[in-house]
Amino acid sequence: MKGLVFKDINQIELQEIEKPMIEKETDAIIRITMTTICGSDIHLYHGHMQTTPGYTLGHEYVGIVEEVGGAVKSLKKGDRVIGPAAPFCGYCENCKNGHIAQCKNGGVHGSGKEFGNIPGTHAEFSRVPFADNNLIKVPENLKDEQVLFVGDVLSTGYFGAEKCRIQPGDDVVIFGAGPVGLCAVQAAKLFSPKNIILVGRKNQLRLDIGKKLGATHIIRTDKDDLFKSISEITKGKGADAAIEASGSEIALQQAVKCVGISGRVSLVGLYSKNIELPLPEIFMKNISIEMGLGYLGHMQRLLNMVESGQIDMTSLITHRMKLDDIVKAYDIFENNQNEVVKVVVTP
Q1: Positive or negative, the Cα torsion across 328, 143, 318, 218?
Q2: What cofactor does its activity depend on (predicted)?
Q3: From CA 333, how far away is CA 12, in angstroms rounded?
């Protein structure tokens, strides 16, 4: 089969590789019908996250069950499914306590032996461990594009909105108009805030999509006075909540400064190094900060909201390409950010 292999830092190649096989009775083999490129794939590719080369990349997917292990009870060949980017066992101590992102037996698709050695989804087939626990059947009336983002960026955006405890009537600021930030816009809308303020820089395409997804105000930091604008929108009190989805030190500092007394800040952007925080201000304003890996346990809930029409993230899709062109797709995704949000890849 074909698969995109991370050969070495800054080196990827579509190659003929071995089709994954059932390794444990709880596994399932999935024929990938749609996948997409994530920012963390780029981090791996460039060595920003250190892993041992030689594995297939990719962790977001829709697929068809090709084969199941003997212990798999809820799935059969031919089922159309989605699953989380980071499969979890469901029975270890961490999972039982709700910390599925820290599962002792799980890992992340397409991230090498350092992250569980689970095959990537930028391939024709992939293996999913703990299949009963992780794979969710897709309703027949939904297309692949409608459900593709449920298992990663949508779950992460929802986690960001959930963690800053948005209340009806709140003013919410979202920093970062990338895929996660845009998903956070749609997720925040579910909690009935008064205003959703999306903050970005230069990339007007993404900000325009954010407006369509539910942002009531757009602030471009390369043109607008950020704090003056937020003060005007919130009538001087500052935001009630902020979501930082860019992984930028400056954006995190701005998120803390833009919230008012007892403001809530949630962090879902990935930070690759230590950063500075304005701790005196955080302390004096009684600001609370929540952070962590996105929780992937709400997939069924989010899928239900996609089916009911409450969530529609298909506007993130700006490019559609074939697996044969996936190396080119990586280049487009990384180097044409003014024109691309998400690239959908099909066999």
Answers
A1: negative
A2: Zn(2+)
A3: 14
DSSP 17-39: -PPP---STT-EEEEEEEEE--H
The residues that bridge with 82 in the sheet, in sequence order, are 62, 136
Q: pLDDT at position 49, please?
A: 86
Question: Taking Cα atoms as reference points, which of 258, 91, 107 lies closest to residue 172?
Answer: 258
Q: What is the spatial distance between Cα 190 and Cα 213, in angstroms, rounded to a whole number?
A: 11
Q: What is the torsional sign of CA 205, 266, 50, 276?
A: positive
Contacts of 231 (CB under 8 A, 6+ apart): 238
pLDDT tens digits, one per residue of 229-287: 999 999 999 999 999 999 899 999 999 999 999 999 999 988 878 889 999 999 999 99
Please choose, from the candidates 326, 245, 279, the residue with its C-alpha nearest in 3D space to the C-alpha of residue 6. 326
Tokens matching residue 227: 């704090």
Residue 101 DSSP one-character state: G
For the beta sheet containing 239-244, the strands, ordered from the edge strand earlier in sequence to the opposite edge, are 217-220, 195-200, 171-175, 239-244, 259-267, 288-291
Rounded CA separation 209/287 (Å): 30
Smallest Cα–Cα separation from 58: which of 78, 86, 80, 79? 86
Structural contact between residues 171 and 233, judged by C-beta atoms closer than 8 angstroms: yes
Distance CA 203, CA 178 (A): 9
Does residue 158 contact residue 298 with C-beta atoms inside 8 Å? yes
Of 152, 153, 176, 150, which Cα lies nearest the Cα of 243? 176
Encode pLDDT of 60-99 as tens digits. Answer: 999 999 999 999 999 999 999 999 999 999 999 999 999 9
Residues 102, 90 contacting (CB under 8 angstroms): no
Domains and CATH numbers, the chain: 2-151+296-346 (3.90.180.10), 154-291 (3.40.50.720)
